[in-house]
Amino acid sequence: MLKYSKIAGLVVFVFLFAMCNQKSKNEADKETILKGSIDITVDETIKPIVDDQVAVFEGTYYDAKINVKPKSEAELVNDLLNQKTKVAVMARDLTKDEIAKFEKNKINPRVTPFAIDAIAFISSKSNNDTLIALKTVIDFMQGKSDPRIKGLVFDNPNSSTVRYMKELAKVKDVPVKGVFSFKTNDEVIKFVSENDGMIGVVGVNWLSQPSPNMIDVIKKINVLSVKGLNDNQYYSPTQNDLAEVKYPLARDLFIVNCQGYSGLGMGFASFIAGDIGQRIVLKSGLLPVRTPGRKLKIRNQIIKDKE
């Protein structure tokens, strides 16, 4: 009797395993690199550039549907590690510990760099000073008061901008006094525009590509030029200063694909890293990882316009 029970249990296990494999195969069959539907989790500080890429991708490949889910960096990474999301767009590369966790679960994430972004410091137009030293901000992050800064304003306590600035300042936690946080970059921009002396910390893409309801608000703020820790010059988060590696708050953007098969995540990553995707990055005000080519038509004769 025990023998038959073991055999029956084995049959059930094999059946369930086959069903799971068939389900995964069916999901892969429904989705290819250019068709199907997928959810991608995106760092909220870089959402505008991803929205642009998705709009053009879906407009080019009509059978593809990409649902963008913006989250803080901490939430995004947690979702990746817990396999709640298969594709994510991040403002940093994976760490060694994160890669080790993926390998432990037999997952080989494909990481594709596609742009160079910048963290921008902003202030109200009522503040005539448009220059700031990075050391001044770092000192404030370390709890040292400064009459030139009434407060630092972040989008989210778990955001990539907070993590970035904490690493620069080499602090575990931000000061309790003088540091404010909201939920979105738009809320930070609006608050700073209405409060003199506040320094906002936002992803520059929110400034170069504001939503229609934020255009007038953007006109009320200054994007500050920043002096690095080992520099005597001030630089702005422009494409030129990013390309010349002069702006001290630059960061690389990546798309991380953990699907494990040739699905829409692979297609979207290839699109972003390709010619069209890189042109979209260039137009957005960020710096593409590779400069899109230009086609020149050379004529042997000059054709004069008819009078």
From TrEMBL:
SUPFAM superfamilies: Periplasmic binding protein-like II. Keywords: Signal. InterPro entries: PBP_domain, Phosphate_ABC_transporter. The keyword Chloroplast does not apply. Residues 35-274 form the PBP domain. Residues 1-20 form the signal peptide. PANTHER family: PERIPLASMIC PHOSPHATE BINDING COMPONENT OF PHOSPHATE ABC TRANSPORTER, PHOSPHATE-BINDING PROTEIN PSTS. This is Phosphate ABC transporter substrate-binding protein. It comes from Flavobacterium hibernum.
